[in-house]
Structure formats: C-alpha cells, structure tokens
Amino acid sequence: MFPATRLIYADSEHDPDMLYAAGMFVPDAFVFLEHRGKRTILLNDLEVDRGRKQAKVDEVLAVSDEIKSLKLKGSSDVGTWLPAFLKRKKIASVEVPQNFPLGLARKLEAGGIHLDSIEGLFWSARETKGAAEIRHLKQALQITAAGIARGVEVLSAASEGVRKQLFWGGSVLTSERLRAEIDSAVLRAGGQPANTIVAGGAQACDPHERGSGPLRGGELIILDVFPRDLRSGYYGDMTRTVVRGRATDAQRHLWETVRAGQRHVLKSMKPGGSGKSLHEEVREYFQVQGFPTEQHNGRWRGFFHGTGHGLGLELHESPRFGATVFKVGQVLTVEPGIYWPGVGGARIEDVVVVTAKGIKLLSDAPVVLEV
Hints:
Creatine Amidinohydrolase, Chain A, domain 1, Creatine Amidinohydrolase, 3-stranded antiparallel β-sheet, elongated
C-alpha cells in the first residue's frame, strides 16, 4: 500500500520542506511530486541539467518536454500544465503543505484535483535528525562559533574611554560595528548571517533587540548569532553574554543564575522527559535566586521566553521545547535567559541532540562572563 500522493510547489532557497525533499537549491518555484513511492521534480530548462546531477530524487523532468507531450500549445503557466500532468498520471488527490499557493490550489481544484492540507510538519521525519543532518548542523555551528569568537576578540581588544564608552580601531565601538565584524567572520566561514544580535546595557533587557549605538565597558552584552550554512541550508544558533572588563556582583549573580539554569536543563534532558517540566523548573529556580518572571512598571522582567526550540532547515522548527516529550534524534537549543532592568540581560544558548543516554552537545564555544 503506497502512502498518499504529495505535492509541493515552492523554491528551495526559502522553503525548508522543498529543500528537504529535493536536496538542492533552486531560486524559483518548481514542482515536487511523490507518487507511489517515487519522487519526481519538474524543472525549467535553465535548471534541469543541474537538477539531474544534484537533486536527491528518483526522477528529474523538464517542464518544456512535459508541455510538449501534453500538447498544450506552449503554455508555461503551471496552473495550466500541472493539472493536465497530474490527470495523465491518474492522480485525483494530493496532500500539500499549509503554505501551498492559494491561486495554484484553486486552479488544481478547477481541474478536478482534490487537495488536502497537512497540519503541522509536512515531513514528519524532519522532527528528528539522522547522521548526515547532524554533520550539517555541526558545520553550521562551527560557522556560528566563528562569529561568536570574532565578537569576543574585538571586545577583548577594545579600550574604555569617557563614561566607559568602548573604542576599537581608533573609533567608538558600536553595536553596528561589532555586528559587522561578527557577520564578516560568518561570511568568511561559509555562512549567511541574518539579524545578528549585539545588545548591551538596557537594550539587552529586550530578548530580540538587535542593538544599536555605542557599547560600554561594565555592561552585560548579549551576542546572539544564528547563521545559515550556505552549503547545506542548515542553521546554527548560539548565544553568549559577556562584560568587557569587570562585572558587578549583581551582574555576576544574574549571569551565574542563567548558567546554572542552563546546566540543569542540559543535565536533565533525556528521552521521555518533558520540556514543559524542565522549563518550569528553571523558572522556579530563577525565582528562588531573586529573579521572578513578572510584569514590573509596565514591562516584563525575569524569564519570559521559551527554554529552547528545534533547529534544522529552519531557525525555529519543530519541536517546541516547552511542548515536547524528548525523543532520540531531536535537535534543540537550550537558551534560558534573565532580563532585569537596572542590572541587564543575560542569555546563554547551546545546541544539543537527544541521545539514548541523555544529550550530546553539538555547539562548541567558550562560556565566559568577563572578557
């Protein structure tokens, strides 16, 4: 008995389901079909020869050849030839991802093809990673670590001026300059940076604030780097929080509390364990240490985001840390954080794969407070 026929129409540069299915980068939308256990892609003449060399499918067809054989008088509109192509194969029903184009869906239905939209993961196998995917993720994390290392290197070489403003290379060191250095290191290592976070002082109290303006010594600075490996399409994601110079007792307590919370999660994760339970344990520990999660003066403070998320062909993909029961092969970030106006923000993030005995750390970068 064959599984249901599956259909995707998307480019594989931006659509992770298509990249997972086809195994090659194509910038324009194309057709993927899985029917009776056979995987087929249909490409335009520009891509078909490359597809026959690179695609990880059973069959690569040229759209132009199919249009000729269908006798459609040269129409290249996918909404015209795809329904005819499917009907010729006696396909009357297909499963599609939730982001399938609405206009094309209507043309297929008008042509007699029934569509079922799949809730959740289109490819359930994406929730767990095999050996090849783990290698891709480790490479992406090496790229990420190169960015983190460059950020720490520049901060370490910086000097303090008036009001502890940092100077490097003869001018003020801003979040923008440091981000450019981190992103350049990522590019040199083979990655594609996007929205790297370099946020210090009060800005670090907003978890997704990218950061702007001058950086200062004696403040907690969050460096969150999450590039895409240009070769495989897999993402890395790591965060470090540092102080240029000496940390205050309050900053050290906040940072060490975050580090202890992360260590607890890393030690406790195992197959069958509850992500929700671990998240609550960390939040309760932070409260005991003096950092309750609460609204104060109209804004949140404490630990008000998830403990982690899945990582792979998407930066945030299934499973959600707080909604999963851990299983072997899942790859997740572990990134507790505390954001406390008046002291600063701190987040420490690493990536693990769940194993039969617990977890294996995939990311590798020093975890230090003072640089």
